[in-house]
Write a structure and sequence with these properties.
Length: 232
């Protein structure tokens, strides 16, 4: 007999023998991760449907802050300070900061992770302008093909200013398209994301979405978190 089916049958039997309150507590205690993942996928699907059907305005900038528990999402102090500094008209377009995303490409290429699947959907649709995570994880994520090769001419301005901060990943030897390491991220470990907002303990890097429509705004965000707005 398939062990997964056996386990499922055992779990069902355990729950049937519990009171309603005990069953709810048991299910939440042992199955909260898949429950949250399913809710996230459903919510993301609903968001995309609403966006398409109601013609929600485009974004000035859309960023994902992955693998952090810091309060840095849309409406946070970071979001308010940034949008104020940038001077965006938020009645014209939006600024989206998503701080609820947890996946690591170093772990089995994040296969089966609902948050990673959401990242793919946003990146492929051109709705993701950038993503932050710890440096090693971001370098690994470059293998997915969803991060902009910073040697691309579209990133010329970013390369001119931050080329000495680039983070690379090594493509497979049989990759006929690239010769040598590919820059897919920028080290911003000394930025306010770490020093002030404590998003990550040690390293922090940002990658640009390969299909990003807002490269200038993404570059401005990097300037902002590194305290170089007045120098830009």
């Amino acid at each position: 007999m398939n062990p997964n089916k056996l386990n499922l049958a055992e779990e069902k039997q355990k729950i049937k023998e519990m009171s309603f309150k005990e069953a709810v507590q048991y299910i939440w205690t042992y199955f909260w991760i898949p429950i949250v993942a399913v809710v996230f996928v459903l919510a993301f699907g609903a968001f995309m449907i609403v966006r398409i059907t109601t013609n929600i305005p485009d974004n000035w900038l859309s960023l994902t802050f992955a693998n952090t528990t810091a309060d840095v999402g849309t409406g946070s102090d970071l979001w308010k300070d940034f949008t104020e500094t940038a001077g965006y008209d938020l009645t014209e377009k939006k600024v989206e900061f998503n701080a609820v995303s947890y996946f690591d490409y170093l772990q089995n290429q994040a296969k089966g992770n609902a948050y990673y699947n959401a990242f793919i959907a946003l990146a492929d649709a051109g709705e993701l302008d950038g993503i932050t995570m710890e440096s090693d994880s971001l370098a690994a994520l470059g293998q997915s093909g969803r991060l902009l090769d910073l040697n691309d001419e579209r990133a010329a301005s970013i390369k001119a200013k931050y080329g000495d901060r680039f983070i690379y990943y090594e493509p497979p030897e049989d990759d006929g398209e690239h010769d040598g390491p590919i820059p897919v991220g920028i080290d911003i470990s000394d930025s306010i994301l770490v020093s002030e907002y404590h998003m990550y303990l040690d390293s922090c890097a940002i990658g640009i979405g390969a299909q990003s429509k807002n490269l200038e705004e993404a570059e401005f965000f990097i300037d902002y978190v590194l305290g170089r707005v007045n120098d830009a």
